[in-house]
Amino acid sequence: MTHPAYGVLRPVTPLASVLLARNPSPMTLDGTNTWVLRAPGEAGCVVVDPGEAGDEEHLRRVADHGPVALVLLTHRHHDHAGGARRLAELTGAPVRALDPSLVLGSEALGDGDTVAAAGVELRVVGTPGHTSDSLSFLLSGPDADPAVLTGDTILGRGTTVIAHPDGALGPYLARCGGSPRWRRAPRCSRGTARSWRTRRPSRRTTSRTASSASTVRAALATLGPDASARAVVELVYADVDPVLWPAAELSVLAQLEYLRG
């Protein structure tokens, strides 16, 4: 069944609209959210996470909502960043990310940077954990409440994968639970557009992730302290579709590293 949101640019706040990519999967949920940001009356826009490489239809649809002044990436995974080079070809827009290898025609981003374009301002917050290069963007502009774009750091449902060995649980818990700048920011995540202005991530998100680590600790008590990540997955995720086990194993590896460290 085709998702009714595919191909439709849906306004979420006065500054942000979302275009859902047609790449649903157990890992991408309904599909990648590509964000189109602009202040009212602005011709240009900022695009965040253009989606997959090879999805020409989606990338051209994003370009049609331009002119695109700038492309930003929350992290390196292909479902978010893969199409950035092609979108740059289509629009001439520079691409910025934390990882210099993803940057085109500009410079890399860093924690604490401020980016201004299309009448909006974005403060860059390093939120490593899902990946080492994960960023979130605090969005503000005229006559609009601030909001946060989190990429895969916070999901619309479920708990994000800590993509070991690139991702790590310690930085995730420290940043999402401990940053004053993060705690002041309302939540925006991939599948919960309406929560942009109404929810805060730190306590709920870190408690879920810490609870997962506690579950792994309990599994080790049953299986023994040297149990493999696969053995833990088979015990803890016995009631979960095995198609998700490889992703779960990455998170368990990160949790074991955290617990054993």
**Major β-sheet profile:** 6 strands, mixed
- Put simply, the count of helices is 8
Secondary-structure class: alpha+beta
CATH architecture annotation name: 4-Layer Sandwich
Helix content: 25-40%
CATH topology: Metallo-beta-lactamase, Chain A
Detailed description of the structure:
The chain has 261 residues and is α+β, with helices and mostly antiparallel strands. It has a single domain (9-200), classed as 4-Layer Sandwich (Metallo-beta-lactamase, Chain A), CATH 3.60.15. 31% of the residues lie in helices and 18% in strands. It is built from eight helices and ten strands. It has helices at 56-64, 78-81, 84-91, 169-178, 180-183, 202-223, 229-236, 245-260, and strands spanning 9-11, 16-20, 33-37, 45-48, 68-72, 95-96, 114-117, 120-126, 135-141, 144-149. The strands form two sheets. The chain has a six-stranded mixed beta sheet with strand order 1-2-3-4-5-6. A four-stranded antiparallel beta sheet has the order 7-8-9-10, with no helix packed on it. A hairpin with a 2-residue loop joins strand 7 (114-117) and strand 8 (120-126). The longest helix is centred in the C-terminal third of the chain and has 22 residues, at 202-223. Mean pLDDT is 84; it is low at 178-208.
